[in-house]
């Protein structure tokens, strides 16, 4: 095609004077149209890439188009702004740029082209676009856009400029990221080759995790229950470590989402990324509390800005999202486990949090209708490859209110205070290890079956090394401080509520060198440290 033929076609399809930009929109040599990345994509039948490059070509060629795209359709960070995707809003932007009578036509043409790429799903009133209901993935176009811009810079600006520096950074100089609703970092990440990562490998299940693993595979819902400090959350995360092949950080759902472009954070995209990364598990954690509800855990209506104010859109919360990711992984043939750790599961109203999904916990893969339709689907399933792993503090007296609802659906595994964990810990020397064991053993005498308070026993994690002590004396000091500021307040609260005998508590503290139940924390720390140091000196003399 000749320059004149291309110009004639452009005049019929543009709000701008074609003569002012057609040479920039296409590549010519001796007034003949040259093949470029755009035309190659079209000839190869890659319509999606061809549409995306046509969009890039307009932003490159027409300064006023670029100005509207970069300032009206995109927010400060570089993401598409829902409030800008309105024919009326874009028209006003063109009016401000002195487009004149063609402002309305220009606005309509621009948004219709963006919808045909497609960059977004339009909301319409008649034929007029009034907003964006959804933004679509664009990162896949970035390599082609960079190639396209290099050709344009080489052919229309300067071959020397095209050879200078990194091609991705050159594209960013022309704000190409903003044409596709991406931040600069998202654009850079999309430009990097997406290589497959070797699959994670799991070692044999450690003996102390074997029961948990067997029940997680059989029952799918397991709760680790025990007294404070028995390492419930620690064990849950140990299981995640094992399941992920020691790739806990890379396998975290929140991290995977954060590294995807904002318009690609869908279950389908997450599942593809999990497969690409070769992960054997994908996981996340939620912590229940008394005000936690269905809208925090399953699905909710979230406010979304639009050209007409604020709309409300149904969105996934962690259970619905991880369930959808797990289902997508199954569709892809992946053997990856999805694991949701629910910390302090008994602190929330289970019926209120799960709602109709209490049924879905028992009947995996069965579709259950929800109050909110996400992406047009009001139903959801909890798939078989999702493991729900809860922790529950048996000292929490709210457990009686929800015990039956939980026990019909979960396997419960007890974790007991374990002195051998203290013995195996990495102490500085022998005296601090012996002191920790002495404190643990003394405290344990307050919680017995006979006293009907064994479930309140204080676990071993309160008696493990903490801080960065490098000497035995420093380690003893940290041990005394932790006992004074963490253990004693809990014991006094139990005593005040009649859960621990005050006389018995006073006697135990006395054997540790602490005078009286009501001593101040600084006094307790000083008295205990003195007693521990004296015991250490005595042991050294022996």
Layout of helices and strands:
Layout: H1 3-12, H2 22-25, E1 28-29, E2 32-33, H3 37-43, H4 47-61, H5 63-71, H6 87-96, H7 103-116, E3 120-125, E4 128-135, H8 142-157, H9 159-163, H10 167-173, H11 176-179, H12 184-191, H13 210-218, E5 221-226, H14 232-243, H15 253-258, H16 267-276, E6 281-287, H17 294-297, E7 299-306, E8 309-316, H18 318-331, E9 337-343, H19 350-354, H20 357-362, E10 368-374, E11 377-380, E12 386-393, H21 403-407, E13 411-415, H22 419-424, H23 430-444, H24 472-496, H25 502-511, H26 521-541
Parallel strand pairs: 5-12, 5-13, 6-9, 9-12
Antiparallel strand pairs: 1-2, 3-4, 7-8, 10-11
Helix pairs in contact: 3-4, 4-5, 4-8, 6-7, 8-10, 16-18, 23-24, 24-26
**Class computed from helices, strands and strand pairing:** alpha/beta
Major β-sheet profile: 5 strands, parallel
Terminal CA distance reads 102 Å
- Enumerate the spans where pLDDT stays under 50 for 5 or more consecutive residues: none
Number of strands: 13
Number of helices, where a helix is a run of at least 4 consecutive DSSP H or I residues: 26
Q: Provide the β-strand percentage band.
A: 5-15%
Strand order of the largest sheet: 6-9-12-5-13
> Share of helix among residues?
40-55%
Mean pLDDT, to the nearest integer, reads 87
Shape field: elongated
**Integer-rounded radius of gyration:** 32 Å
């Amino acid at each position: 095609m000749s320059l004149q033929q291309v110009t004639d076609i452009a005049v019929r399809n543009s709000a701008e004077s074609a003569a002012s930009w057609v040479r920039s929109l296409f590549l010519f040599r001796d007034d003949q149209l040259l093949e470029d990345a755009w035309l190659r994509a079209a000839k190869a039948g890659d319509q999606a890439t061809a549409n995306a490059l046509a969009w890039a070509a307009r932003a490159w060629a027409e300064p006023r188009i670029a100005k509207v795209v970069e300032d009206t359709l995109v927010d400060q960070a570089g993401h598409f702004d829902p409030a800008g995707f309105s024919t009326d809003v874009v028209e006003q932007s063109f009016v401000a740029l002195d487009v004149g009578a063609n402002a309305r036509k220009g606005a309509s043409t621009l948004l219709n082209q963006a919808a045909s790429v497609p960059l977004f799903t339009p909301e319409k009133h008649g034929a007029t676009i009034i907003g964006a209901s959804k933004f679509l993935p664009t990162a896949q176009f970035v390599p082609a856009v960079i190639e396209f811009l290099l050709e344009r810079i080489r052919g229309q600006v300067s071959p020397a400029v095209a050879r200078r520096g990194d091609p991705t950074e050159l594209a960013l100089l022309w704000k190409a990221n903003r044409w596709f609703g991406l931040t600069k970092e998202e654009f850079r990440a999309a430009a990097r080759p997406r290589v497959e990562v070797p699959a994670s490998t799991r070692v044999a299940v450690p003996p102390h995790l074997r029961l948990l693993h067997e029940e997680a595979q059989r029952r799918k819902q397991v709760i680790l229950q025990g007294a404070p400090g028995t390492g419930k959350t620690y064990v849950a995360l140990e299981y995640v470590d094992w399941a992920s092949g020691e790739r806990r950080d890379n396998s975290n759902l929140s991290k995977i989402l954060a590294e995807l472009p904002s318009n690609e954070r869908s279950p389908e995209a997450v599942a593809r990324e999990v497969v690409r990364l070769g992960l054997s598990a994908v996981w996340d954690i939620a912590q229940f509390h008394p005000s936690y509800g269905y809208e925090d855990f399953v699905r909710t209506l979230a406010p979304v800005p639009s050209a007409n104010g604020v709309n409300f859109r149904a969105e996934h919360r962690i259970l619905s999202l991880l369930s959808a990711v797990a289902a997508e992984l199954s569709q892809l043939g992946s053997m990856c486990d999805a694991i949701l750790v629910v910390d302090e599961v008994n602190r929330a109203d289970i019926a209120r949090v799960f709602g109709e999904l209490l049924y879905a916990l028992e009947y995996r893969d069965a579709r259950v209708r929800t109050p909110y339709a996400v992406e047009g689907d009001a139903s959801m399933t909890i798939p078989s490859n999702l493991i729900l792993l809860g922790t529950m503090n048996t000292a929490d007296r709210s457990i009686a209110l929800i015990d039956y609802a939980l026990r019909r659906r979960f396997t419960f595994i007890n974790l007991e205070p374990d002195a051998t964990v203290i013995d195996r810990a990495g102490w500085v020397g022998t005296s601090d290890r012996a002191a920790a064991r002495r404190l643990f053993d003394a405290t344990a005498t307050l919680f017995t079956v006979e006293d009907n308070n064994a479930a309140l026993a204080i676990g071993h994690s309160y008696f493990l090394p903490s801080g960065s002590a490098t000497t035995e004396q420093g380690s003893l000091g940290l041990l005394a401080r932790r006992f004074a500021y963490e253990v004693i307040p809990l014991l006094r609260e139990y005593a005040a509520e009649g859960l621990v005998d005050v006389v018995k508590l006073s006697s135990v503290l006395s054997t540790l060198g602490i005078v009286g139940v009501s001593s101040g924390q600084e006094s307790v720390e000083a008295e205990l440290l003195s007693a521990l140091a004296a015991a250490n000196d005595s042991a050294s003399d022996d």
